[in-house]
Amino acid sequence: MEGLDVDDVFHHYRLCPTEVEAVTYYLPRLLSGETLHGADKLIHRVEISGCEPKDLAARYAPAPQAVSSGDRFFFTTCKSKRGSNLQSVRGAGAGTWSIQKTTEICHAGVKVGEVKNLSFKKKGKSTGWVMEEYRCLLPEATVSDGVKVFCKMHLAQHAPDAARQESEAYKLQQQQPEAVTPSTHAQKRPPPAAAADPHPPLTLPPQPTITRTICW
To answer: 125-136 and 95-107: which strand pairing?
Structure first.
């Protein structure tokens, strides 16, 4: 792609990793801090545990070429419940992330990770937000309070209008006017004219010259 910088590639092409790529390429590099050649600009390193999708959607814009589906990518910690390393905390605001299924990811006949498909629900009903949560088998992915995961949050195929409006909430943040500051080069106002002296000094009229003539 002549004339196109590597870091600009993901601004023109949709970030859509396969399951194998998610756990064998992206997640290991996110854990080690290696560069992702531009894709890291689209992956937000933020703790999303306890956050509702609408709040995340208002804060982070969807990835380029994925505005209609609302794709947002996160590198985060899936926190474990207190006293358990198996069950994960799924409550988020007034709703809950419900695990729909867990699938093993294999490459060349060997398990390399797994993906959990989740749906965000309120009062038992789907809101139209879904997420794929990818986990690898690297030991460094396990931390003291949970497991480091790579997530893709997006709209379901038949998401209701309410969810689609939530996905576009980031536009309101972008449209906020910038604070207006006075120009440092603004012309200074001239100082006010000095007030007239109410008691000006008296000017005496010129004195007449007296010439004496002496007669002899």
So the answer is: unpaired
Identify whether 117 is part of a domain: yes
Please give the single-letter amino acid code of residue 55: D
Low-confidence ranges of the chain (pLDDT < 50): 1-4, 6-7, 180-186, 208-216
SS3 134: strand
Tokens representing residue 41 in the block: 């600009």
Domain of 50 in residue numbering reads as 20-174
Q: Read off the pTM.
A: 0.74
CA dihedral 112, 156, 72, 54 (to 10 degrees): -130
Q: Is residue 73 part of a domain?
A: yes
**Secondary structure (3-state) at 153:** strand
Q: What does 95-133 look like in DSSP terms, one character per residue?
A: EEEEEEEEEEEEETTEEEEEEEEEEEEETTEEEEEEEEE
Q: Provide the domain count of the chain.
A: 1
Give one word for 48, left, alpha or beta, with left for phi > 0 and alpha for psi -120 to 50: alpha
